[in-house]
Design goal:
Blueprint lengths: L12 H4 L3 H4 L25 H7 L21 E3 L21 E8 L9 H10 L2 E8 L3 H9 L7 E5 L7 H8 L4 H4 L8 H4 L3 H5 L2 E2 L2 E2 L1 E5 L6 E6 H7 L7 H11 L7 E3 L3 H7 L12 E4 L2 E4 L4 H15 L5 H4 L9 H5 L3 E7 L1 H10 L8 E3 L12 E2 L4 E7 L5 H14 L6 H8 L6 E4 L2 E4 L1 H6 L13 E3 L4 H15 L2 E2 L21 H9 L5 H30 L5
Helix pairs in contact: 12-13, 21-22
C-alpha cells in the first residue's frame, strides 16, 4: 500500500503479496449518486466518552496463545518462532453458526476463485455458516459500493475500507446497516471470545451514528510508513543511518552517483512529514489537533511547510531517483530498482519490509532491507502522530434477521482468532496439503493456495494487530521493535479513535492538497502557492469546519494519551 493510502490493510501481511499494495490508493474519487436511508442515528459528528462506554463491548484479553513479543507503545504483538501444526490451539471449541446462508460483498484484488472451492468449503464447514462471496474489483470498489448502497438490494454483509468512506458513504452506513450493540455491547460480546479480545480502540472506531455498526480490522496506531533502506549496502559502504534532516541530506549527496545510475532515494515526503512532526494526512479528523487552546489543521502549521521545503531541496539537489520526478512513483512497484541498487532508501508501508525480503531471499542472498528509525528534523526525538486503530469494517444489513446476524458474528469470531490457533491457520492459509505445506516450521502456500486463499474471510473481522513471519523471524522482530520505539514518541491527536462523519458540504475541501504537495516538492509550484491554497481553504469553509470540530471537542473532550 502506498503512503498516500489509508492505513487499513497495510497491517496485514496477507495483502502484502497481492495487488492491493498498489491498488488501494486513497484520493477523492467521485462516488455514484446519493445513497442513504432513514435511521434515528446522527448523520454527522461522533460518539465518545460516556455515550460510547454504554455501547462498547467489554474487553477480555485472549489467553489462548501467548505472543513472543507482547504489545508495547501501541505496537502489534509479535511471533518469532517456527510454526508447529501439532501445537496449534483451539479458540472456537464448537461451531456457533446455525447453518444459515450469508452473502458478503467485499473488495478483492486479483482474480476471485471459483465458488465452491476447497477454501470456501472448509471455512464454511468450520464456522457452520454458508458464506457466499460477492467479490468486487478492489480498484473500482468505491463505484460499486455507491451503486449498491443506493439500491434496495444490499447484501447481508458489506465490507467498507476507510479510504472508501467519502461522499455519501458514511451517511449510507448509518442508514443501511444494523446496530450490533444488542449482540456485542458490554458483556454480550463474551459469547464471542475472539471478538471480545479485539482492542477497545478498534471498537470505538466502529461506532457510526451513535450505534455499534462495524466489525473492525484492528491495526497498530503507530505510523505504518517506514523509511526502508538497503542495510547491506550501508554496511558495505560504511554509511551511517541519519539522525537529522541535515544528516540525511549529507548522506544522500554522498550516496548519489548519477553516472553510475545510483541515487539516494525516492520521494521522501511522507518521512519528512513525520520528521517535522506534521499531523497525519491519512484521515481528515486526524489532521486536527488542539494546541495552546487553538484548534489547528495540519496544512496551517509551519511544520507542514518546512517538510515540503526540505523535500523540495532533496529533489533540487539531484539525489532523488529520476522516476520519482515524473510524479507518483511511490504508487508504482519500487522493488526491482531497489533490489538493483538504483536507489537505497524509500518510504513505504511496513509490509514491504517482509515482502522485499521474501522476494530477494533466493536470487540475491546478500540483499537486506531494514527500517530506519524516524529522526527528528533537528536531530532530537521526533514527534509522531497516531494513526487510527482500525481502518476496514464489515457491516450487517439492517434488514437482516437475528439468525443472520448471529451467523455473521459466528463468522467473525472465527476470522478474529489469534495467531497460533487452528482457526487462524484455516482463515489465513486454508487446508493443509491443499493450500499450504509446512517445512521446518514455515508454512508455504501451494499454487492452489495462491488461487483460493486470498482476501476474503479475513475482511470480516481480524484479531489484534499481529506480526508473524516464520520464514523470516528476524524481520518480524525488527518490525515489532521498530513500532515499539516509534510508539514511544507517538502522540494521539485530539480526535484519535473517534469515528467522525464530516458534513457533506465540507468533505472535499482539502482534496487538492496532495497534488499540490507533489507539485511543490518537484519544483512545479512554490511554497507561496501552498500558502495561498491554505488561505482559500479557510475562506471556502475551513474556518467553519474548525468551528464544527471545536463543538465536537467541547462536547466530547480530546482523545486520551
Amino acid at each position: 500500500m502506498t503512503p498516500n493510502a489509508a492505513s487499513g490493510p497495510s497491517r496485514r501481511s496477507f495483502l502484502a503479496s497481492t495487488a492491493v499494495a498498489t491498488a488501494a490508493v486513497a484520493g477523492g474519487v467521485p462516488l455514484l449518486s446519493a445513497c442513504g436511508g432513514s435511521d434515528g442515528g446522527s448523520r454527522d459528528g461522533t460518539t465518545s466518552g460516556k455515550d460510547a462506554k454504554k455501547i462498547l463491548p467489554a474487553y477480555v484479553a485472549s489467553n489462548v496463545v501467548a505472543p513472543d513479543i507482547p504489545s508495547k507503545n501501541g505496537s502489534a504483538v509479535g511471533f518469532t518462532g517456527k510454526l508447529d501444526l501439532a501445537d496449534l490451539k483451539t479458540s472456537v471449541p464448537k461451531k456457533l453458526g446455525k447453518g444459515g446462508k450469508v452473502t458478503v460483498m467485499s473488495p478483492f484484488w486479483g482474480s476471485p476463485p471459483k465458488d465452491g472451492n476447497a477454501y470456501y468449503t472448509s471455512m464454511n464447514d468450520l464456522i457452520g455458516v454458508d458464506v457466499v462471496w460477492q467479490n468486487q474489483d478492489g480498484n473500482t470498489y468505491d463505484q460499486k459500493l455507491g451503486a449498491v448502497l443506493a439500491s434496495s438490494e444490499v447484501p447481508d454483509v458489506v465490507v467498507v475500507p476507510g479510504w472508501n468512506m467519502t461522499g455519501k458513504i458514511p451517511s449510507a452506513i448509518i442508514g443501511k446497516f444494523a446496530d450490533l450493540g444488542p449482540y456485542l455491547s458490554g458483556d454480550a460480546v463474551k459469547d464471542y471470545p475472539n471478538l471480545a479480545a479485539i482492542p477497545t480502540d478498534a471498537w470505538q472506531r466502529s461506532i457510526f451514528g451513535d450505534k455499534l455498526r462495524g466489525l473492525p480490522m484492528p491495526s497498530s496506531y503507530v505510523t505504518g510508513i517506514v523509511p526502508l533502506y538497503r542495510r547491506d549496502v550501508f554496511e558495505k559502504e560504511g554509511y551511517e543511518v541519519p539522525r537529522s534532516c541535515d544528516e540525511f541530506m549529507a548522506l544522500a549527496k554522498d550516496a548519489t552517483n548519477a553516472k553510475a545510475k545510483r541515487w539516494a532515494c525516492l520521494d521522501m515526503k511522507w518521512t519528512a512529514f513525520n520528521a517535522f512532526g506534521v499531523l497525519s494526512g491519512n484521515e481528515k479528523s486526524l489532521g486536527w489537533n488542539e494546541a495552546d487552546g487553538k484548534l489547528i489543521y495540519r496544512i496551517e502549521t509551519d511544520e507542514y511547510l518546512e517538510a515540503l521545503e526540505w523535500t523540495r531541496k532533496l529533489f533540487a539537489a539531484g539525489v532523488v531517483h529520476p522516476d520519482a520526478k515524473l510524479g507518483k512513483s511511490n504508487a508504482a512497484d519500487p522493488g526491482p530498482k531497489f533490489a538493483a541498487g538504483e536507489f537505497l532508501i524509500y518510504n513505504q508501508d511496513m509490509s514491504q519490509w517482509w515482502s522485499r525480503t521474501a522476494e530477494q531471499a533466493t536470487q540475491n542472498p546478500e540483499f537486506e532491507i531494514w527500517g530506519m528509525d524516524i529522526w527528528g528534523h533537528d536531530g532530537g526525538a521526533p514527534t509522531l502522530w497516531a494513526q487510527n486503530p482500525a481502518g476496514i469494517f464489515a457491516f450487517v444489513n439492517k434488514k437482516a434477521s437475528e439468525s443472520v446476524i448471529r451467523d455473521v458474528l459466528a463468522v467473525a469470531n472465527v476470522t478474529a482468532a489469534p495467531y497460533g490457533t487452528k482457526e487462524y491457520m484455516a482463515t489465513n492459509y486454508g487446508v493443509e496439503g491443499t493450500h499450504y505445506t509446512v517445512k521446518d516450521g514455515v508454512p508455504t502456500k501451494t499454487d492452489q493456495g495462491n488461487i483460493d486463499v486470498m482476501n476474503a474471510y479475513v475482511m470480516v473481522a481480524s484479531p489484534a494487530a499481529t506480526i508473524a513471519h516464520p520464514d523470516f523471524p528476524q524481520v518480524a522482530k525488527g518490525q515489532v521493535e521498530w513500532q515499539q520505539r516509534m510508539g514511544a514518541v507517538t502522540r494521539k491527536p485530539s480526535f484519535y479513535g473517534m469515528q467522525i462523519t464530516e458534513p457533506a458540504r465540507w468533505t472535499n475541501l482539502s482534496n487538492d492538497f496532495e497534488q499540490l504537495e507533489d507539485d511543490v516538492v518537484r519544483g512545479r509550484k512554490k511554497i507561496s502557492d501552498v500558502q495561498q491554497a491554505v488561505s482559500d481553504w479557510k475562506s471556502k469553509g475551513g474556518d467553519k469546519l474548525r468551528d464544527w470540530y471545536r463543538k465536537i471537542l467541547d462536547e466530547n473532550g480530546p482523545a486520551a494519551g
